Amino acid sequence: MTPGAFLATSGLLGLMVLAAGAYGLGYTASQLKRSRRWALAAAAAYAVLAIDAAVLIAATPLTPGWKILVGASALAYLGIPPLTWRYLQRTHDQKGAHA
Amino acid sequence: MSRSQGLAVKYLAAAVLFFGVMTASGLMSAVYYIDPNFLFGLLHFSTAKMLHIDTMIIWLLMGFMGAVYWFLPEEFGCEPAGIWAAELLFWVFVAAVLVVAAIFVFVQWGPGTETTLWLFQQGRKYVEAPRWAAVGVALVMLVFAWNVVGTAVRAKRITGIMAVMSVNMVPLVLLYLIAFPKIDNMAVDLYWWWWLVHLWVEATWEILIGCIMALAVMKLLDTSRKIVEGWLYIEVGLVLGTGILGLGHHYFWIGTPDYWLGIGGLFSALEPLPLLGMVVHAIYDAGVHRMKTTNRPAFYWTLAEAFGNFLGGGVFGFMITLPQLNLFAHGTQWTVSHGHFAFWGAYACGVLAVCYIALQERRRLAAVEGPGWIWAFILLNGGLIGMVGSLLVAGMAQAFFERAIGGSTLDAFIAGQENAWFQLGIYTRFGFGLMFSAGYVVLAWNLLTLGRRRVVVAQPLPAE
Amino acid sequence: MHYDDPKFWRAGAVSTTVVMAIVLVMLTIDSLAAITAGGTHVPAYSVINRHIDYVYSDKFGRDMPVLGGEEPLFGRTRSETEAAALIGRGKLVIQSRACMDCHTFMGNGAYFAPDLTKAWLDPAWDAWLAITGADTKDEAMARFLMSPDQFATWERKMPNLAITRDEAEATVAYLKWMSAIDTNGFPIHFGRIKVEQ
After folding, report:
1. ipTM here
2. Hey, is the C-beta of C63 within 8 angstroms of any chain B C-beta?
3. Which positions in chain C touch A87 (Cβ < 8 Å)?
């Protein structure tokens, strides 16, 4: 791995998780506020994540196994906020939020 | 207030005190990078650093203990078993920490003998304290475990949260025994040392803070126990499911077989996933309650916990965890950047949230308000993010110039340290360290004085 | 649904933890065999009697330690028992002086001073022969450890830690042994400068 490729790959990996966080924030805010603007922000954040993952897979010197991990992580990050949200709704609706 | 809560307040106060020692010694450590002749011949970087990282462990541990002693009577409906022993050992613990700090400063080292390890210095990172002190810490933790588990036995009932905490006590205490041996083979030494360090801060401590945050959220937001317990079990499953074999990310380069590159890299890369779930959960709680609570600082510090854990542990960790990248970044300021952010987010913020929860009840405040906590929050988090960003720049420069280009020799190390980007990071780190230190002073003042000052409203004089 | 019941998630947490812990224990048993002195990755302590090199292996795609012919340390060949005792003494020195709070060992420790994993192989020692007036690298290293403040070559100096002659020899032995550990290629391309393309 060249020095430049190392720095770029590290940066892309960090950006991927950061974008996942932004997507999670945007998704949850859009559900809470029923806001289209937040939903668009969430989509934009996930778009950044997806492009980032694509660049990691297509253009970095990671070996195939790690590229599969990057792809699988990108899909997992897509599903985590909606799944978490749905389960939060379910548990709070059923039991009542308050003791 | 129960005896246990009285002890909790003492532990939380001691935690904040040692947080101050950590901050001061951290600032000192930063000076050595700028002025290499600073206190040369008197007090060296190693001593400042030792004080810094050891008081970090101590203040967080005391914070956890304070939090647990605070919530224990409410969870069990009675005083903890063996509270008298815990009360006694608190003073022993604090005295021992102070004596060890004095030894580090005034004695510093001894000859290369077993006696030195028993009396002055063990020289293994985070567990430098001499063996006599390690015996004391082990005793304190055994009594702590007794206070939790023994109370469950005595009360003949246990909540889900306390059951998780009780089971967690076993590895928490047993792992500390790794602080004792002197192992000649560095590969074997580091192998076991990482069981202590990683399985504390990326496993058993995560469970402990998870339990504490569960109790805090029940108090702050009046959330039902059943909801909180369900989520606690999910967190335990995900954190331990990724973190136990995530231990392998410390086994890339210490002489262990290369299957750890794959195993450690894979499980470590999965560790951010549950942290994203925690961020979603935190925002949900904030949104559903419309940020309304009678204890805003506690709530904000709880949110900071979720975000800080994700950013510091998840984002910063993911940048350097794949082995082919870790090869360059391992043992550089990049590691320091990640470490500071992760510890702050995962643990410090949570302990500070509990400080404010205890403070509200202790001083019988209907609401916790005022500008003090806001300034402390801004200065501490701003300072921390600034330090972490600075160290990221320095670390990237080091990894690039010393390792990737330089060939990792002594000359490459020096070239990396003298690199302009590295130097920039070192100077800005110090600046943000000052900001963080100011935040600490405001925090300590705020915790000391909140709710204590009475505002006297001047009465107009009666008309003549 | 069963996943509405916290007990479902409790069972999941317990089973996940148990499975992962069992796997960790199994891997530990295997790893300990490899990293015991004389194992596949960590040399016997008597390696201090031999020449050590660090060479790129095309087969493994990384640097590997290579053991050469006889090269006694401080002019003396030691038996396995003597070498183990010397290494044990070296570790006592390293712990008693808290070297790990300035230096790193296989990247672990503090980052104020250089990593010592391959310090025995560092090309800088050639210059230190002249600086310390020593005839051999091991002698130069020992003289440096006993008076590091006198042989500083950089503004960041190592302090004098009152290391005795015996302790210095033990520490040098430790560094020589440690440089022969197969660290899966860490630190990256040691001693070779890479030009950015």
Report:
1. 0.96
2. no
3. 3
